[in-house]
Every structure is written in structure tokens, then in C-alpha cells.
Amino acid sequence: MFNEMYRGDDIRPEYRLIQDWLNANGPDALNEKRAEAEALFRRVGITFAVYGEGGDPERLIPFDMVPRIFSATEWDRIEAGSIQRAKALNAFLTDIYTERAIVKAGIVPADLIDGNDAYEPVMEGFAPPGGIFSHICGVDLVQVGEGESYVLEDNCRTPSGISYVLENREVMSRMFPELFRSGIVRPVDHYGDMLAEAMASVAPPMCEGEPTLALLTPGHFNSAYYEHTFLADLMGVELVEGPDLFVEDNRVFMRTTQGAQRIDVLYRRLDDAFLDPRCFRPDSMLGVPGIMEAYKNGGVTIVNAPGAGVADDKAIYIYVPEMVKFYLGEEPILPNVPTWRCGKPDEYKYVMENLADLVVKEVHGSGGYGMLIGPKATKAEIEEYAKRIEADPAGFIAQPTLALSTAPTLGADGLVARHVDLRPFVISGRETKLIPGGLTRVALKEGSLVVNSSQGGGVKDTWVLNK
Amino acid sequence: MLSRTANGLFWMSRYVERASNIARLLDAGRRMDNIPNSDEGRASEWESILIASGSHEIYDGDIKNADMESVARHLIFNEDNPSSILCCMKSARENARAMRIAVTREVWDVLNSNWAEMRGKSGRDITGGRLAEFLDWVKNCGFLFQGAVEASMLRDEGRDFITLGMAVERSDATARLIDVKYHVLLPDAQDVGGGLDHMQWVQLLRATNSLRAFRWIYRETVTPQSVVHFLILNKKSPRSIIAAMCDIVEHLESIGGGTPDQRAVCAQAREMLTTLDALSVEQIIGNGLHEWLTRQIADTNVLAGAIAHAYGFNGPELIETQSQSQ
């Protein structure tokens, strides 16, 4: 198993500054800092829940004080691979709502698209400005060895967690100024400018002059509300709710104390289903009646585009490496985890015979629920799960159990090794880019592979070092 | 700025101000309660405090026999009383949370910390001689908020709505506080102008933290006339009704009137200020202090309604109805 702090018995150079700090100050100092950091998080009211996990909307995620560190070389690969993936996914989304060349080429079966819950027929034939569906795309990665990573899943819909990336850094730089002073850690605080710039670059055809941006939130009862306020604040744009907005002559306006003001690009943190009661769920009080028509007529740009969730499906995930080849003519930089589709007879047979060694997931599942982790399951659990697969083979995929990397994490008596993953956030507008870093989630329970916050996961600051 | 945001800022500020003013009311009651009352005359200060707070109708008990502890509990911890200090702090924080982007981190920090601390308080913190200290703490929470607003917020429209909310609430609260004196019964009609009457006026000044300021300005013994002048007509007195009215006019003008309704509300406020400015203490007291205060409270309420209407607080789609029980 790959412990990211070590190469063989030696501490990797990237982690030497952490070890030096610990040698100089001792683990107790780190524990004290942890209490201080938690008080800080609580005071500014940073609360967070990863998309779709529910739970107390005002809970704090445990924060681990030991940063996760990437060398410049490691990061170059992750960066290039994530950008490549986001480009391919955007090309795919544009394609499936228009030409469907990838279906015609016999690569992706049509039923995986038409049968997908996230597919929005209303988007058919429509090309969003710049050909971008997923302006903010989270690519979830795991590592198994030095420079050896796999993509676990893609989040093209509405990936959350970026506020934690930036707030973690803010807290770390307050706690450990001496570690940042050397300038060895690459900064992440230009995320707001990067996002605002990307949003402005996809202004709708009707927009003249400087586009007005806004962020649409379901409101302060939403679990990710803190992140919505954080992002609006970061970009210096209005944080609006559905009832603040109305549509007139294919333009979207917000109600202000000085009358109606036009919005050109709307970053919505609201699910497709609630976006427009005239188009999706008629009972939605959170959306804006008529916004889809305005969107399709070029009066406003919606970020991320409705229907982008098709690409998040685990059955579609399997085809992403082929998308990279098909649309970009490139070899995939970041590989998928090898995946067996239980819907295919020969692969089904292999999965059923090897359940004890595999991880099995529901095709439409998320949040780490409804999974079978073969090596950790009892015989009875495996038999139970086998029955579920038997009943609906196409609803499941299986993957080998990866020896996930661990990162040093603060335990009661010093550093312990805990499993981690990484979500970089790729921004697509006129250009496709990302900040050096991302959300590192850590499974705080010993041996656990589940990093989701609802199941004992925490977060870490992610450092990318300068060359 | 979004109309919803303006509404949220206005109410956030009103709730903070209301919490402090409920503390001042309680402080006035506590001080009057402490005045040695040698006569057998019925002590009625707690009844009058309840009436002045505007929440006597939901007081759970016999209002005639209300005492310090029960009134304090009602006005501090009662979750069913939207004007209790607990509810005010909660509502202020909720409004700030809903308008998180429109307030600075410093302002949010104050409201969030105050609320967290308030949640940890219990009956133990207001009994056994600890009430005065608790009330000081509540007032300090208000001062911290004002300091954070003053020192960290942009001086733009958002700030104007915050000051507007504060001024509307303060004008209302000062009128109610003076009215306490009307409801407190003196043992005998002949006691008007006597020692007890005098002591009560003094305690009223103390509760508004303004006895020293009063002496500095008037350099004379406390009389009902001078207190009325100080708390209603003196522009130098920070909690006077006319000072609040000046703030209202100034900030309405600063926001500016783009629509006929907005210009009308500005004119309405200006007219209220002009009327106040021309008034004398004799005119106020001559026609009945209580009657004047009642009318002033009603007029301020009408003005607040007109502001809400002019700036679209209640929008075509009302998102949230704020408690207006006072």
C-alpha cells in the first residue's frame, strides 16, 4: 500500500517540511492547533455537506491539520489529465444533445443516454455558448502508487466542496505562516477570478457589453448554502433566490431596490428539476418560470447546463477513455478504474464468481451508499448482494479493490496513515483550467476506504509544490 | 441591491436593536423595583414593563401579579414571544445568515457568536443578582454589532438599510420606554412630582445609559419636562426620537428615490421630522404624554410599512413574513 509520505523507508522530499515542523514542535502542538482551527471554522460558520448526502445542514466537517502534498511533477500529470477529461466530457455532452456522432460510431449505446435519468430532452438540438455543458467539473481521483492515479468518478452536474479548499488554505496559512512564507506552496486564491472570467466568457448572444453574473441558491436551508454565499462573495456577484428573479422578453432580471436589473450568466446551485417550473417540476418554488425558454433563445447562460448529469452516470463513466480518443484524438492521461458491467453476460459471470475480491456499486448510486466491498463483507452479506445483482444486472458495475494510498493524518498520539481521495475542480470557459489543488477527503477511521463526510470522512488542505 | 437583501438587512438590524431595547426595558424595571417603596402602594413596574414591551398579550400568567423573575423569563427566554431577547438574537442571526453575502464576516461573526453564547444561557444567569450583569451583556452585544457595522461595512445602500432598521426600531423603543412611566402607578395622585416620581424618572435615564449625558447637558435636577425633552426632542441625545428621525431621513435620502413611491416615503419622513422639530415639551405634555407617544408609535409603524412597500421588501412573492408583534 502506498503511503504518500514515504518512498520505501525514506520520507519523500515533499513531506520533509512537515516532518521538520513536527520534529521541532511535537504532536501536542499540532493538537493545540487543531482545536484553534476548529474554533475558527465554527466562528465564521463554515458548514458544508457534500452534494446529496443530507444530514444536519449546519454541521462542521472534521478538518485534519496535516496537509496532503503533491510535487510539481505529480501535479502536472493530474492537471493535464483532468483538463483532458473535462474537455472530452463537454464534447460528449454537446454531441449527445445534437449529432450523436459517438452513438453513430457504435461507441456508446443510445439506450444509456435516452434511459438516463439526468438526460433532458429539452436540451436536444441546443448548443450552449462556447459548447460548454459542465463549466465546473469535479474529477474524483485516487492514487495507488507514486504518480499512479485512477479516476473514480466524474461530477459534471454541480460539484461542491470548493469553499472548503479555499477556507482550509485560509486557516492553514493563519496557523502555519512559517510554512507558507517560503513560497513553496502554490496559491489557490485566484479561483474566484478564474470562475468569474470563465462565466463572462460564455455570455449569451443577446448580451451586450460587460455581462452581469449572479449565483442562484435554493436558499439558506440548503446544505451547501455556506458555499453559495462564499462563492458569490468571492466573485463579487449577487446571491439570488428564485423569487428574486423573473423573465421578460427572453431576458432574466432580478428585483432590486433600484428596480429590475438584467442577469446574463447565472451560476445555479439548484438541481435541474427545480430550475424552471414551466419546464421541469411544476411544483418548484425555488426556480424561475420561463428561464429555460430565455436560455434557449440566447438571453441568458445557465452554468452548469441542464442535462450535464448524464456524464456522471457510472454506466457512462466506463466510456470516458474512449471519448478522449474519439473527440480529442488523444490517449487518456488519467486511466479509469477497470470496470466490469454486470449487464454484459461474460462480465456478469466474472463478477458473480469473484464477488469476494471486488467492489460492486449501483450504477446510479452516490455518496458511498449501497456498495459492496467484497474483501470486507461477510459471506452472508455477499450472498445477499448477489441476489440484488441477479435481479437487475444492468444496475451494477464492479471494480477491483484498489490499494488506495494513505496520507499522514493527525491521530491522538501523532501521525497515522489514513486513506484519501482528491477532487480537483476543472473550470471550462474560453479556456479549460484549474487551480493547483483540490478537495482532499480523508477516511478518518482506521482502515476505512469511505471518505464521504456523512460516513466519518474529513478534509485536508491540498498543497501543490513549486518546482 | 436585491429587495430581499434590503429587507433582510433592515430586519437584522431591527432585531439587534430590539434585543438591546428589551434589555433596557428590563433594566428600567429592575431599577424601579429597587426603589425603596415605603408605602403599601402596589408595585406595578413589572406590569408596565410588560405593556411597554408590546408582548403582554402573550404573557403566560396574571399580569397584575407579574414579578421580576416571571417578566424577565418572558422577555428573555420565552421562545413563543417573538420579541424575547432569545428570539430577537436568533432572528437577527437568521436574517444575517440568509443575507450572508451582504454583511461582512465581522458583522456575521458578532451575530453568530452572540447567538451561540445566548443559546448557552439559562435561568441561572438571570437570578440571584445576576440579572443586571446579563442585561449589560445584551446591551454590549448590540454595541459590538454597531461597531462591526460602523468599522467594516461599505458605506453604501446596505449600510443605509441597516441604519434605517436601527432608527425605526429605536424611535419605537424610546417611545415605549418613556411610556413605562405613564403605566407605573404612583401610590397616590399627590405623589406626582414627589420623591418617588423623581426617582422613577431618574431610573428611566439610567436605563438608557444617559443619566450622565443628561446632567452634562441640562445641569439641573431631573424633571419630567427635561427628561421628555432629552429623550424626545434633543438631537444630541443618541436615543432620542428626533435623533432617530434624523437618521431615517438622512438614510432614506442617501438611498435615493427612483420611483414615485420611494420619493413619497422620503417626503413623509421629512415631514415627520419637521413636525417634531417644531414641537415643544409643553405641547407634548399639555396634550397628554401617553396620547402623544401612542400616536408617535403608530405613525412610525405606518412609515415602516411605507418603506417596506417602496423598496419592494414584500415583493410580488413574499418569501418570509417577519414578526411585527410590537
What level of helicity do the residues of chain B show? Answer: 55-70%
Q: How would you characterize the largest beta sheet of chain B?
A: none
Low-confidence stretches of chain A: 49-55
Report the β-strand fraction of chain B as a percent range: under 5%
Mean pLDDT of chain B: 88
Give a structural overview.
The complex is a heterodimer of chains A (467) and B (326). With 467 residues, chain A is of the alpha+beta class. Chain A has 2 domains: 6-332 and 403-464, no CATH class; 340-400, Dna Ligase, domain 1 (2-Layer Sandwich). Chain A is 32% helix and 23% strand. Chain A has 14 helices and 22 strands. Chain B has 326 residues and is mainly alpha-helical. Chain B has one domain (3-310). Chain B is built from 14 helices and no strands. In chain B, helix 1 packs antiparallel against helix 3 and helix 5 (105-119) packs antiparallel against helix 6 (131-152). Chain B starts with a helix and ends in a 16-residue tail after the last helix. Classes of the chains: A alpha+beta (467), B mainly alpha (326). Chain A binds chain B through residues 43-45, 219-220, 225-226, 229, 232-233, 238-241, 243-244, 254-259, and chain B through 1-4, 6, 94, 97-98, 100-101, 105, 108-109, 112-113, 157, 255, 258-259, 311-312, 315, 317, 319. Chain B: This is Alpha-E domain-containing protein. Chain B: Residues 1-311 form the DUF403 domain. Chain B: It holds the Pfam family Alpha-E.
Observed structural traits:
heterodimer, A: 467 residues, alpha+beta, Dna Ligase, domain 1, 2 domains, five-stranded mixed sheet, four-stranded antiparallel sheet, 14 helices, 23% strand, globular, B: 326 residues, mainly alpha, disordered C terminus
